[in-house]
Design brief:
With 180 residues, this protein is of the alpha+beta class. It has one domain: START domain (Alpha-D-Glucose-1,6-Bisphosphate, Chain A, domain 4, 2-Layer Sandwich). It is elongated, with a radius of gyration of 21 Å. It has five helices and seven strands, in the order H-E-H-H-H-E-E-E-E-E-E-H. Strand 2 and strand 3 form a beta hairpin. A seven-stranded antiparallel sheet has the order 1-7-6-5-4-3-2. 34% of the residues lie in helices and 36% in strands.
Length: 180
């Protein structure tokens, strides 16, 4: 009787390991998130505001949730090389964001480097497009990857949806601030 129970438990464990292995191999390792909003302000005005990473404390969702987050700034804000580092005891963890490239009045590209609770790098961007003289479409996006075996978490947690909600919240706040 005891031997049959051990064999059954061993078989279940083997099925679990095989299933987990297939899940790790088949789950995507890449992800992308993008949201957009139209702001009733000229493109140059919107771009000048979003190019500065310090302004994300006003419109981005993370600092609003954790106003006690410790931040350090290096370089000239709004220029390539500017870096903001953060350390949080709550959900944001430890990491930094660096401006990598700017196309004036069009695009800001940054690199996000997360250090804790896990290490990963992602590329983020903000694109501004003139809808007309007084309206600007802002696209905020991120692309990244989750290395195996951590990619399996993407099967139970929809990264696009989770980050997308934060981006929607941030863009709505950005619109509210700039349209005042």
């Amino acid at each position: 009787m005891f031997k049959k129970i051990l064999i059954a438990l061993g078989g279940l464990l083997l099925l679990f390991v095989v299933g987990l292995t297939f899940a790790i191999l088949l789950a995507p390792t890449e992800f992308a998130v993008e949201r957009e909003i139209v702001i009733n302000k000229p493109r140059s005005e919107v771009f000048e505001y979003v190019r500065k990473l310090r302004n994300q404390n006003e419109w981005g969702p993370w600092f609003k949730r954790e106003p006690t987050m410790h931040q350090e700034f290096r370089g000239t804000d709004g220029e390539p090389g500017f870096t903001v580092g953060w350390k949080s005891e709550l959900e944001s963890g430890v990491g930094e964001q660096e401006i990598k490239h700017i196309v004036e009045n069009e695009r800001i590209e940054t690199e996000l480097r997360f250090k804790d609770p896990f290490e990963s790098n992602s590329d983020s961007y903000i694109i501004t497009e003139a809808v007309d003289e007084d309206r600007t479409k802002v696209k905020w996006g991120m692309k990244g990857s989750m290395p195996r075996p951590f990619n399996v978490f993407g099967l139970v947690m929809n990264i696009e949806s989770a980050i997308g909600k934060d981006y929607e919240e941030g863009l709505a706040s950005l619109k509210s601030i700039l349209e005042k």
